[in-house]
Design goal:
alpha/beta; Aspartate Aminotransferase, domain 1; Aspartate Aminotransferase, domain 2; 4-stranded antiparallel beta sheet; 15 helices; 15 strands; globular
Length: 422
């Protein structure tokens, strides 16, 4: 397979809506799989989106023409693989509009990125009596690491509340800041509710108190344009498998000045400049945080996925998904006995719901019989479930390849569940 043989993504035109059928043709799984003999209606994108043929082809090309370990080899394959790997870093830099490519740290996903910041920044700069601010709508990955840090250091975790619609109560968030506040970590988009937080304001509030802030962008990067320079966040992280890339890939953006002050998260090969039994000298960023042989193929696939989305245009993707969510919300509200969990004014492509008194796991099982794939459970956001007094929800989440007809299929399947338990 040559470079020229790789299939190109559909070119974006900001003035035109998405050609969804053209885009769907890029995703072979949408036609290759027929669960229970039914057409696949894949609405579990907040957990993992599907990969287009362009990303699959790029992975195959690496494995069949470029595979070698990177950075330390001087032979042809090693140099080829290194160029492909570092080109993927540039793709992430461009996708986030980071100032420099050295501000992009490759990770296995959002969870590892947050833990990297907790260990590298938090363990070095946060101590007893210091306070860390998060919000009530965080994913467990943006709760547990900070709890671990607080337990170790004697720090205090402060939580900004949300209202009955699932919106952050910004005034309460602002009140949490004081002289003891040393860090904030907030989500850009809630994975359980779809709420889009006023992220620029949250960042500005933190900075007005001299507090660095991390943004969990796992649910934002698939759906919204992200510009870390315009946001002025200190850290931003996301997962590759939610942006049409491979599992085991992701990235952390960090301002260079902060990354240079941080201690490494892991020790081992490639994060060093020199090692003696008396002392180790660490490598420069980003390599200081990328110990050992990295997941080379997934990162190259991640770069291809971001290039694919960028070619289509994130603004166009956002507009398409916003229209899908509005249509799905309207249609679901027409179904008696359905309660939508999360009704914020500004939402991304997530629709969490409860059908009568039917447990969401049963809802998900019955929807699957009609080929409709949704996520059920607490979505690694148990505090959110507790806030809305439900054990779990069924969650439909949309991507660029979903259609209005698939929304109709979802609603028809929900009606069947409702009638079955009526």
């Amino acid at each position: 397979m040559t470079v020229q043989a790789l299939r190109q993504p559909p070119a974006g035109d900001a003035t035109k809506p998405l050609d969804v059928e053209r885009i769907r043709a890029d995703f072979p799984i949408l036609t290759n799989v027929r669960p229970h003999g039914k057409p696949l209606v894949f609405l579990d994108n907040a957990a993992s989106s599907q990969m287009p043929q362009q990303v699959i082809d790029r992975l195959v090309r690496y494995q069949t023409h470029e595979h070698a370990n990177i950075h330390r080899g001087v032979h042809y394959l090693s140099e080829t693989a290194t160029r492909a790997y570092e080109q993927a870093r540039i793709s992430v830099q461009r996708f986030l509009n980071a100032r420099e490519d050295r501000e992009i740290i490759f990770t296995t996903g959002t969870t590892e990125a947050i833990n990297l910041v907790m260990h590298g920044y938090g363990r070095r700069f946060i101590g007893a009596g210091d306070e860390i601010i998060i919000t009530y709508m965080e994913h467990h990955s943006n709760i547990v690491p900070w709890q671990m840090l607080c337990e170790e250091k004697g720090a205090v975790l402060k939580v900004a509340p949300i209202d009955d619609s699932g919106e952050l109560i910004v005034e309460e968030y602002e009140k949490l800041f004081n002289a003891r506040t040393k860090f904030a970590a907030v989500t850009h988009v809630s994975n359980a509710l779809g709420t889009i937080t006023p992220i620029k304001h949250l960042i500005d509030v933190a900075h007005s108190h001299g507090v660095p802030i991390l943004v969990d962008g796992a649910q934002a990067t698939p759906h919204l344009p992200v510009d870390v320079q315009a946001l002025d966040c200190d850290f931003y992280c996301f997962s590759g498998h939610k942006v049409c890339g491979p599992t085991g890939s992701g990235a952390l953006y960090g301002k260079a000045a902060l990354l240079e002050k941080m201690q490494p998260f892991k020790g081992g090969g490639d994060m060093i400049l020199s090692v003696t039994f008396e002392k180790t000298t660490y490598n420069t960023i980003p390599h200081k945080f990328e110990a050992g042989t990295p997941p080379i193929a997934p990162m190259i696939g991640l770069g291809a996925a971001l290039d694919y989305l960028s070619a289509i245009g994130m603004d166009r993707i956002a507009a398409h998904e916003e229209a899908l969510l509005a249509y799905a919300t309207e249609r679901m509200l027409e179904v008696g006995g359905v309660r939508i969990i999360g009704t914020a004014r500004h939402k991304a492509a997530v629709l969490s719901f409860y059908v009568g008194e039917v447990h969401p796991h049963d809802v998900g099982t019955l929807l699957d019989e009609d080929g409709v794939a949704v996520r059920t459970g607490h979505h690694c956001a148990q505090p959110v479930m507790q806030r809305f007094r439900v054990p779990a929800t069924a969650r439909a989440s949309f991507a660029l390849y979903n259609t209005h007809a698939e929304v109709d299929a979802l609603v028809a399947a929900v009606v069947k569940v409702r009638d079955m338990f009526a």
